[in-house]
Amino acid sequence: EGPAPLRMGSRGRIHPLSGPPAPFRVVEMTEGESHAFVTRLPFARLRVERRLAPDRRSFTHRVRFEGPLGWLFARLWGPRFRAALPPTMEALAALA
Length: 96
What we know:
The protein is an alpha+beta fold. 27% of the residues lie in helices and 40% in strands. The chain starts with 10 loop residues before the first strand and ends with a helix. The mean pLDDT is 86.
């Protein structure tokens, strides 16, 4: 049995390549087109958005740090997120 499908309000855990798992919640959902989820950070939150391209063969992936200390997390963690993106996308493509 595989993972449950994402739905608006779904909750789960992100398992990063390094660091502990973190809870997330789906905050935006357009079935078959896009979704966004957030995870809480101290005085900030991480928002991940994924949108399927019109040709349905690729998608865009956007990561943002929001909130009062979002700028700090972007500065501290942004470079690591950029470095981790290629292997993360390869793993996601393998699951798809």
